[in-house]
Every structure is written in C-alpha cells, then in structure tokens.
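Hey,
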Amino acid sequence: MIRRLWPSTLVGRTALVLLLGVALSNAIGLLVYSGDRLNVLTTSRGLDLAERIASVVPLFERALPRERQALARSLRRPGVRLAWTKWPIADGDSSSLSAGLIRRALLKELGAEWENRLLLAYQTEDGRRRRFGGHGDRGPSSRGGFAGRNSQAGQQGDVVRSEERRARLEPEVEREVLVGSLRLNDGSWLNFIAPAAVFKPFWATRFFVIGIATTVVIALFSLWAVRVAARPLSMFAVAAERLGRDVDAPALSETGPAEVRQAAVAFNQMQTRLQALLRDRLQMLAGLSHDLRTPITRLKLRAELIDDSQQQEKFLADLEEIRSMVEASLAFARDEAGQEPEIPIDIAVLLQTVCDELVDSGGDASYAGPSHVSYRGRPTTLKRAFTNLVENAIKYGGVARIDLEEKAQHIVITVDDDGPGIPDSEIDKVFEPFYRIDGSRSRDTGGVGLGLAVVLSAIRLHGGHVLLSNREGGGLRATVELPL
C-alpha cells in the first residue's frame, strides 16, 4: 500500500519528503507554542489575581458578617467579581495544569495554611449560569452571592460582556471562567470569579487554517524549487534519448550551477568523441569500398580473357558478388554519415509510393491503411528502409502486404510475406551487417546481408524499433514502430 502511494518521480519524492517535514515541523512548533503560551498567560494572570485576592482576604476576615456583602460590592474591579456566601461557589477542585499554577501563586501570597481552604474550578459560561442560578434557598441569591441589588443574570452578563470585549482585543485566547472559593476563619466563604486565559489548541480553526495555509505555501515553493533543481536531469534524459537517435544532435547548453555545467560539458565531450569514432569508422569503410572498385574492374576485364566459358562465368559471378558487397557498403556508409534533415512528411503516401514502384517492377505488393498520416522524419532514409523490407518480403515470400495503423503515441507498420520464415535463433542475427541465413534465405536469392542492417539503422535514427516474428500458418512479419 505504501509503495503504491510513494511517488515514482524524483520531483514527487523530494516534494513529499519536504512536505512531510514542513507539516511535522509546524505541528511540533504549534504544540510547543501552545504549551509555552498557555503557561505564560496563566502565570501572568495567576500572579495578578493572587495579589488582588490576597490583598482583600484580611479585609474580609476583619469585617463583620453584615458588612461583608457591601465590602464585596465596593471591591468590585473589572474582570474580577467577589461574593461572600456560606457555601463554596467553586464546583469541585480542578487538577489541571493552569489551575495548579494559579493555586501555587495564591498559596505563595496567602501562606501554606490555606492549602486545604482553597477550591478552584474552571466553568464555561453555560455551566456558570446553571451553578449560580440553580441553588434554591442555598444559592448565593439568598445569601448575598454575586447578585447585590441587581439580578444575578444581569451581573453575570456584565462580566461576560466585559470578557467578550477583552476577547476582541486578545483574539488568541478562548474565554472560560475561573471560579475560586476561600474558606474564612469563621467557616464562611469568599468567592471570586475571573476570566481564565486558555490558549486555543493548535487544531482550533484559526491555528488550523494558518497551519494549512503555511504548509501549502511552503509546499508550492518547495515543489517549484525541486522542479527547478531536477530540470537538468530531465534535460539530460532528453539529450541522451536524442543522442541515441542522432549522434549529430545539438549539444547541451552548458549553463546553470557548477555541477550541472560540469555534467553538460562531460556529456558534450562524450558526444563529440562518439561523432569522431563513428565518422572515422564510416570513412574507413567508405574508403576501403571505394578503393576496391578499381581492382574489381581490372579483374572483370581479365576474366573476359579466360577461354573456359564455364570458369569464366563462375569467376564473373564471384566478381559481381564482390562488387555488390562493395556498393552496398558504400551505400550503407553514405546513409550512416548522411545529414538528411527531418521534415514533415506523409508516411502513408510514402508507403504507397514504395508499393507502386515495386509493383511497376513486377513485384506483388499491396497497402492497407489510412490514406494520409502526418509524420516528421527523413523521407529518403525511411523510403530506403521500407523499400528494403518490402523487397525482402517479395524476394523471400513472393508477396508483401503492408499495413499502417496510427495510435496515440506512435504509428505501427507491418510487412507480411508468405515465405518460409526465419528460425527463432536467427531472428536477432539477421540485423547484423553482412549476415545471411543458410537455406532458402541465402545468397542464391541475391543480397549481401546489409538490407536489414540499413532498416534497423534508419528506424533507430527516428527513435523507433523493428521486430521480426514468424506468423502462425507460415510467413514472416516485420513490425516497425515509430514514435509520433
């Protein structure tokens, strides 16, 4: 499963690794930021709250019970409400990390003896309303509580609206209520309510959107950077494929980073050496073939002086075979060294022309396929290659049937004959220069063994390939695929 999801390209793999790294880095950063920010907010709020509560506790301890409610109203400050009741308002005792920080700050101000007399709890707005409004005769509404002269709901609404206004100024925090209760020496309780700064988790909407947006931007930039970095590899792949088709293809541009320039220089030097090697071999072959023409001509003249007609005929046949090999070698060298440009051609018309010319010379050839197929190639080279294929089919199989099929990425040309075929062990060897098969496909039928070598060279020059196969029922099929 993982292997199927793993990209197959270098760009895809590198981009995926970068994307995973960025996502992991963002997640870890948000986790660390959330924890640190919550700690800072809670500590600062807790210290301020602890100082304020610690300063009023002695006042409530000294005040008479009938004075404490009025004292609570007089000590009212923005963000912190006080109430004196006979029961604790805090709903349980919270064990959260932030509550622990505030507890330690309060105990530091009040003293360790208040450890068992302090209750702290976080409540949401809805929970706070239920707690303050649902006690009946035991609730703070009948004991002074947070109500004062106004309704409890109105006072709590003031707190909520005040906190909402502060929330707009500090949008990075989410408001909850911290409710605390301190048991005084006479057993009554001093209660306070204050906003609790709770940092939004990294999966909250705002952080999630920011994290996703950051990851997407970095991913797009990384993808662009990786594509730019990997572009030279694509250029080398295209250049290598082009070199395989044409050794005289344009050289690579020697630009870019130092490593890319160095690789481009090495590639161009390799191409230059290949060109020189191929040129030297072809020049040697052409020179040797040309030099053999003169002694062959002299031998033919001397053969005319032989009195024995039977020996003379055999001698002339051997000389003709040598001459054919020399001419074929010269033609092969010229084709390999030729610089015919690629131009737009109609390959369907080219195949029909090959058939018509061979039919005019007495051969049995037919074409089946579309009337027009556009292709960019070397017309003379392709015509010579297909002429060799069709001539071989007629020569060894008596008939040549040509079929052309155009596909999305390439065109397929097949040439069928009705001959004896080729042994499977010989199929790859027949493309070698001067190789001829013993038996029915031998020198008795003509040829010097360069026809299929010329075909293979021409088709490879166009980036295609040739395949020979024996057909069921007899005969040979030559299949040529040319990329569009």
